[in-house]
Amino acid sequence: MAHEAIPLKKLAEQFASLPGIGMKTAWRLAFYVLTMSKEDATEFANSILEAHEKIKKCEICQNFTEKPVCDICSDVTRDHTTICVVETPKDVIAFERARGFHGVYHVLHGLISPMDGIGPEQLCIKQLLQRIQDTEVHEVIMATNPTIEGEATAMYLSKLLKPLDVTVTRLAYGIPVGGELEYADDMTLSKALENRNEI
């Protein structure tokens, strides 16, 4: 590739580093960015920077928010005695879209995966344990994906939580094994919540 096209190659490589984006799509996105006006390109870049600067983790549930405490955690009408533990902020959006859950959440920001070098200390587990010790919690729902890593994380957490005198449940398998929560339809998610089982 010609020397003057190196910025374009770097742009394509940045797009390719995003999950689910292959090199072919990355090149298409890079070329599309070049067709944008300078104002639109600047706004696009500024949106990324602004998100990085303004969006933080909620002090309570670790979900992404602009405020110290997110809207869900500060909502007094929600059941704060029931915590739904999920892998990512995308999973919170999936449950909220299904409208079947009225408790609160805790986002782990990952799953235990020794193959990828991810251990419990790299997840937001310490904050969950502290939260349960500091507040009145009756039930913790393990809503990690039904994958090997999701199951391992759920079992690890259930062992930590049992001595804290809380009921630990697991989503029922309305979600297909190997599937991901963000792709599940609303009815499947609602049914999985309704038919959850104690671990």
Structure, described:
The mean pLDDT is 90. By secondary structure, the protein is an alpha/beta fold. The chain has two domains: 52 residues, Helicase, Ruva Protein, domain 3; 135 residues, Dna Topoisomerase Vi A Subunit, Chain: A, domain 2. The protein is 42% helix and 14% strand. The protein has seven helices and seven strands; from the N terminus they run αααβββαβαβαβαβ. The strands form two sheets. It has a five-stranded mixed β-sheet with strand order 4-3-5-6-7. Pfam families: RecR_C, RecR_HhH, RecR_ZnF, Toprim_4. InterPro entries: DNA_Rcmb_RecR (IPR000093), Rcmb_RecR (IPR023627), Rcmb_RecR_Znf (IPR015967), TOPRIM_dom (IPR006171), TOPRIM_RecR (IPR034137).
Topology:
Blueprint: H1 6-16, H2 23-35, H3 38-54, E1 56-57, E2 64-65, E3 79-86, H4 89-98, E4 103-107, H5 125-134, E5 139-142, H6 148-161, E6 167-170, H7 186-194, E7 197-198
Parallel strand pairs: 3-4, 3-5, 5-6
Antiparallel strand pairs: 1-2, 6-7
Helix pairs in contact: 1-2, 4-7
Distance between the termini: 56 Å
Give the second-level CATH assignment, the architecture of the largest domain: 3-Layer(aba) Sandwich
Low-confidence stretches: none
State the helicity in percent bands: 40-55%
Helical stretch count? Answer: 7
Q: What multimeric state do the chains show?
A: single chain
CATH class of the largest domain: Alpha Beta
Radius of gyration: 20 Å
Question: How large a portion of the residues is in β-strands, by DSSP E?
Answer: 5-15%
Series of H and E elements: HHHEEEHEHEHEHE
Summarize the main sheet: 5 strands, mixed
| Domain module count | 2
Spatial strand order of the main sheet:
4-3-5-6-7
Mean pLDDT: 90
- General form: globular
The count of strands amounts to 7
Structural class: alpha/beta
Provide the CATH topology of the largest domain: Dna Topoisomerase Vi A Subunit, Chain: A, domain 2
Family: Belongs to the RecR family.
InterPro entries: DNA_Rcmb_RecR, Rcmb_RecR, Rcmb_RecR_Znf, TOPRIM_dom, TOPRIM_RecR
Organism: Clostridium facile
Function: May play a role in DNA repair. It seems to be involved in an RecBC-independent recombinational process of DNA repair. It may act with RecF and RecO.
